[in-house]
UniProtKB/TrEMBL annotation:
The Phosphatidic acid phosphatase type 2/haloperoxidase domain, residue ranges: 58-176
Domain of life per record: Bacteria
Coiled-coil residue spans: none
CDD domains to which the protein is assigned, alphabetical: PAP2_like_4 (cd03395)
Organism placement in taxonomy: Bacteria, Pseudomonadati, Bacteroidota, Bacteroidia, Marinilabiliales
Species name: Aquipluma nitroreducens
Membrane-spanning segments: 26-48, 55-77, 106-127, 134-155, 161-180
Keywords per UniProt: Membrane, Transmembrane, Transmembrane helix
Name this polypeptide is given: Membrane-associated phospholipid phosphatase
Pfam families, alphabetized: PAP2
């Protein structure tokens, strides 16, 4: 375990130490939640336009997916594991680069940013049809860059981000399965009514 912690710290220092004036503002904005609101609104619009009421059900499961990811990473693991962020680690004080967003909360395991973005990307990858294949690729690229930015900005170790990503992928997959089961159940429930009307 001690070896893994040392390896995690070394990889963090390598990524965080590679910052420069060109990428600094880019990584800051990648980590910002508010800047992605237009993208979220566009996805909502496309889903409703393409799937109608089925799209509303998808959005309900999107909300559930992100809630589960966020509460598992932030509400459960951070308070249970209590691993200091690198930005709060005394032995790294003065050695790391921090973006203007600041050091973040005290604990960092697991990354809720990584959990949330990978949860969203995974869920949509499973439920959206082939018409959105380029959006699916784009979502995973976006998730990777957001997760990477957390290390670059000095607020997470790679291990925090990896754990958060796995949480997101797991819940994204499970909620996609739950969505398909729910959608199938609702279709079967509506079918007898239509047959009776005939």
């Amino acid at each position: 375990m001690e070896y893994l912690k040392q390896l995690d710290t070394q990889l963090f220092m390598l990524i965080n130490g590679s910052h420069n004036a060109f990428f600094d503002p880019m990584m800051y904005w990648l980590s910002d939640k508010l800047i992605w609101i237009p993208m979220y609104l566009l996805i909502i619009f496309l889903m409703i336009r393409r799937y109608k009421m089925q799209g509303v059900l998808m959005l309900v499961f999107v909300a559930l997916t992100i809630t589960l990811c966020d509460q598992t990473a932030s509400g459960l693991l951070k308070n249970t594991v209590q691993r200091l962020r690198p930005s709060h680690e005394p032995s790294l004080s003065g050695l790391i680069y921090l973006s203007k967003a600041g050091p973040g909360g005290l604990y960092g395991f697991a990354s809720s940013h990584a959990a949330n973005v990978f949860g969203l990307a995974t869920f949509l990858c499973f439920v959206l049809d082939s018409k959105f294949r380029y959006l699916k690729y784009g979502l995973f690229l976006w998730a990777f860059l957001v997760a990477y930015s957390r290390i670059y900005n000095g607020v997470h170790y790679p291990g925090d981000v990896l754990a958060g990503s796995l949480i997101g992928i797991t819940f994204g997959y499970l909620m996609a399965k739950a969505y398909f089961s729910t959608n199938e159940y609702l279709k079967k429930k509506a079918k007898p009514d239509s047959q009776t009307n005939i």
